[in-house]
Specification:
Helices cover 72% and strands 0% of the residues. The protein contains four helices and no strands. The longest helix is centred in the first third of the chain and has 21 residues, at 2-22. It starts with a helix and ends with a helix. The model has no long low-confidence stretch (mean pLDDT 80). Residues 1-11 have a biased composition (Basic residues). This is Ribbon-helix-helix protein CopG domain-containing protein.
Amino acid sequence: MEDRKAHKRKSSQATYEREKRKRDRILIRLDKGQAEVLDAFCGAAGLSRSAFFRRHLDACIAAARATGPQSGDAPGTAILASEFDELFTSLRGE
């Protein structure tokens, strides 16, 4: 039994190390209640939270490349902000 736990621990550590080499990990803090809204949207769309953010970040990057740098803002900020506003407003029924 102990060998199995040690093997599982070693395997998990190796998976974590591989993942660290491929991906950046970030922490996003949302206002109270927004996680439920995000989860409801993601569930309806069949996406994980990570997939949701990757999809929108990819769209933001593509838009920034298409339009070039925007003065005063990070590339694509207005596009991404409007998409989030739209998402949370529509899910709250406003």
